[in-house]
Design brief:
The complex is a heterodimer of chains A (124) and B (645).
Chain A lengths: L12 H10 L11 H10 L2 H5 L6 E3 L1 E3 L9 H9 L15 H13 L15
Chain B lengths: L11 H17 L1 H7 L15 H8 L13 H11 L4 E4 L6 H9 L6 E4 L3 H15 L4 E4 L1 H18 L4 E6 L10 H4 L15 E3 L4 H15 L7 E6 H5 L23 H13 L3 E5 L6 H14 L2 E4 L20 H4 L2 E5 L4 H5 E4 L5 E4 L6 E6 L20 E4 L2 H15 L2 H29 L10 H12 L4 E3 L8 H5 L20 H13 L4 E7 H6 L3 H7 L5 E6 L4 H13 L20 H7 L3 E6 L5 H13 L4 E6 L4
Classes of the chains: A mainly alpha (124), B alpha/beta (645).
């Protein structure tokens, strides 16, 4: 349930950040544990804004898609620790560096979007 | 169910009436009474003789205490309501307006048709949803101080949403006419005071002629832009007692106000600014009252070849129109002239605001951008409740009804557009059209993520619903998923295909307002669809009984994320801000353990129920069964266990 019925489709700085950093996707991301990352992602309520499938959602504005993220690890970690918008900032007391490694591994492992042409009812 | 709203059995009113009835019976049937009396005991004859006061009292004629009447104030009140063309009276029955209730049923032959609701919040929200589809108000009646306080929350939503609702509340004005107990607790000297801060007008008529004139006046005020709820107190004596002077009563003529068009010179100035702008932009929210309003807005956008960002307080602008840029808010930052029409929250639309430890805001517009406003919202504001929002600087502020003013504005713009501008306009329009197309394609791509997941994504849920209703004459009248997938992907173009949101954000709106809208759609044979949240559902589940009882067809999809999800996210943000654990934020924010089975609740109310559906593959057949029920004229609920957003 939501208490606000207003559009929540503002393009937030995090989205811009993702676009800007996409080209520099890190090859040196730490080797996190995706299974552990999934547990943390669900336990620590990442899913509440970004969806269990990393499909994105709405908080106070658009919560960006994380499935098969294009963000480099360093950019992702920076957003988690010090977000530029209304996303909560997760300090080390809440999420350890290892937790972030694992979450990153999990969202990287999520399948990204498919071609909508493969789903007939999306082409009405 | 006993509501304990009536007086105790031995109340003064009932006692006097029953005493009067016995007296009358005794007067007309003395032989029977005499024959039934037991033999007089000889001792009684020795009793003291009556004194002079007793003799005087017995010699007096009995107090005037008739037991039947041939006319009723409620009959006249019913005639007044019918003179306004009011189709329905939504009520939760109560003694303080029993006179009017009975008159509607018998004198009016149930016209306006009584719609039985199990809570006043449901009744007013139904009226709000109905008005936004049908374009006129129905009537609602509630019970004195207690019923009106139940109704107040929904009246506040209607106030914030600028929707006309005609609310009546029973009251007993004369203190000596109130029975002890309930009738005192349910009466007030100034009952309208309870809701005065969020109604446009109220009155407490003291005579039937006063009632007639005030009711017609109230209806006119409610339906004149800026619209809003109104309240009329119904004195019980006035409703119930005989009409003393029927020949002197007159029902006033109702003639709707023609909404005001903005000043011609100001509209010409606005047209000049828009035509000369490099990147003009239209913002809109509650513009279209009729189909003509949509057509007029399309005409203006086509004339200017500019983008339109629709906040969708009403169905204003077709979702698939190439100039619809509602999901490209960055355009606000690029505009040099912004025309804001009938906006509810202009400041919130042209500024960004951060919900961080230090709350800050900044303009979303570029420096030097000019803002023109056209609308009537600010012509009627009140002080206490702060729904008017933050002050926004304006460069040209035109008081005038948006829909009524658009043709003159567009004509003025057309006269100013010469051939030299057309090439630039066409190029601008083509660029916007391409961006719109890309936006739609992106939405389709985004919708595929988690397509087969369980819980089901909201994108999948909406796509499955649209696939089965797209060829029907559909009307979406509620949302619990923001204005996301349907507005991104569906083809909204008719006025009744969307009717906005709650207005005040008072939870409990969605289910009853959707059923109210479905009531309006019923006679037009439209397929009404709504997406409602689980938390909202639990505020007013009894709405479903009304839908079943009155056979109001609606497909109600429960977006069941098993939480007050917005609050879940807010609580998580608080914990993160305080660097404390965020793993227990489900405490007080979720609706699980046990999970609520909405389909079972629906069936318990006599409504077809499907679900809970957790596998997306089960959605299609469940929706097909539910839609078949709806098309047969009955309501149906489909409980879809969903991912949060």
């Amino acid at each position: 349930m939501i208490r606000s019925g207003r559009f929540a489709f503002t393009a937030l700085a995090i989205t811009l950040c993702a676009a800007a950093l996409a080209a520099a996707r890190a090859q040196d991301a730490p080797q996190g544990d995706a299974a552990s990352g999934k547990r943390i992602y669900l336990r620590e309520a990442c899913f509440t804004c970004h969806g269990r499938s990393g499909q994105g959602g709405v908080y106070r504005g658009q919560a960006p898609i994380l499935a098969h993220t294009a963000l480099p690890f360093d950019g992702f970690k920076e957003v988690v620790r010090n977000p530029p918008n209304d996303m909560p900032a997760y300090s080390e007391a809440v999420l350890s560096d290892k937790d972030i490694d694992d979450i990153y591994a999990f969202i990287e492992s999520l399948p990204g979007p498919r071609s909508p042409k493969d789903i007939s009812i999306l082409n009405n | 169910m006993s509501k304990h709203r009536h007086s105790p059995p031995a109340s003064r009113r009932d006692f006097l009436k029953s005493a009067g009835l016995v007296g009358a019976t005794a007067a007309v049937t003395p032989p029977v009474v005499a024959n039934s009396m037991p033999p007089i005991q000889s001792e009684k004859l020795k009793a003291a003789l009556p004194g002079p006061r007793q003799i005087a009292a017995e010699a007096m004629p009995p107090a005037y205490d008739p037991v039947n009447q041939t006319s009723s104030g409620g009959d006249f009140m019913t005639d007044v309501l019918n003179s306004l063309g009011i189709e329905y009276m939504v009520i939760n029955c109560a003694s303080s307006y029993r006179g009017l209730h009975e008159a509607i049923v018998n004198h009016g032959n149930n016209k306006p048709e009584i719609i039985t609701c199990v809570h006043e919040d449901i009744a007013v929200h139904m009226a709000q949803g109905y008005a936004k589809i049908e374009g006129k108000s129905l009537a609602m009646a509630c019970h004195g101080t207690v019923g009106l306080q139940h109704a107040a929350m929904a009246m506040y939503n209607a106030w914030c949403d600028r929707v006309p609702v005609l609310v009546f509340g029973g009251n007993i004005m004369e203190a000596d006419k109130r029975a002890s107990g309930g009738e005192w607790a349910h009466s007030a000297v100034d009952i309208g005071e309870i809701v005065r801060e969020f109604t446009k007008w109220d009155d407490q008529p003291a005579s039937l002629q006063h009632f007639a004139e005030s009711t017609v006046r109230a209806y006119k005020i409610a339906t004149t832009p800026p619209m809003g709820p109104v309240f009329i107190a119904l004195d019980a004596e006035l409703q119930e007692n005989p009409i003393p002077d029927a020949e002197s009563l007159r029902i006033p003529k109702f003639e709707p106000v023609i909404p005001p068009q903005g000043d011609s010179a100001a509209l010409a100035e606005a047209a000049k600014m828009l035509v000369e702008a490099r990147n003009p932009l239209i913002l809109c929210d509650r513009v279209a009252r009729t189909a003509a309003g949509i057509a007029n807005l399309v005409d203006l956008a086509n004339t200017l070849q500019c983008g339109v960002i629709d906040n969708a307080g009403r169905m204003n602008f077709p979702s698939r129109h190439p100039l619809n840029q509602s999901f490209r808010r960055a355009l606000i930052d690029q505009a040099d002239v912004i025309l804001a029409i009938e906006m509810n929250d202009l400041w919130g639309t042209v500024n960004s605001f951060s919900d961080r430890i230090v709350r800050q805001s900044r303009p979303a517009t570029k420096p030097g951008a000019k803002i023109i406003t056209l609308g009537v919202r600010d012509l009627y504001l009140k002080s206490n409740y702060q729904d008017f929002g933050r002050w926004q600087d304006i460069d040209l502020d035109i008081a005038g009804d948006g829909e009524a003013s658009l043709p003159a504005l567009t004509e003025a713009a057309k006269h100013l557009i010469d051939e030299g501008r057309k090439a630039a306009y066409d190029a601008r329009g083509q660029k916007l059209a391409a961006a719109h197309l890309a936006m739609v394609e992106q939405a389709k791509t985004d919708a595929t993520i988690g397509w087969d997941a369980s819980p089901i994504t909201t994108a999948r849920m909406c796509a499955e619903v649209y696939d089965q209703i797209k060829d029907e004459d559909w009307s979406v009248v509620g949302t619990a998923i923001g204005l996301s997938w349907p507005h991104r992907l569906w083809d909204f173009k008719k006025r009744y295909q969307w009717n906005g949101v709650s207005g005040g954000g008072g939870v409990g709106y969605n289910l009853p307002a959707s059923v109210g809208a479905a009531l309006a759609n019923k006679k037009h044979s439209r397929l009404t669809v709504a997406f409602g949240g689980d938390g909202d559902f639990m505020f007013n589940p009894g709405t479903l009984w009304t839908a079943a009882h009155h056979k109001i067809p609606i497909l109600y999809i429960v977006h069941n994320n098993r939480a007050y999800h917005q609050e879940y996210m807010y609580l998580t943000a608080m914990a993160a801000r305080h660097s404390r654990g965020v793993d227990r934020m489900d405490i007080g924010t979720t609706l699980k353990e046990p999970n609520i089975d909405y389909a079972t609740i629906a069936r318990g109310m006599g409504v077809h129920g499907e679900g809970p559906i957790t596998d997306p593959k089960d959605l299609r057949p469940a929706l097909a069964r539910a839609i078949a029920v709806v098309k047969s004229g009955e309501p149906a609920v489909v409980d879809v266990v969903t991912d949060p957003r």
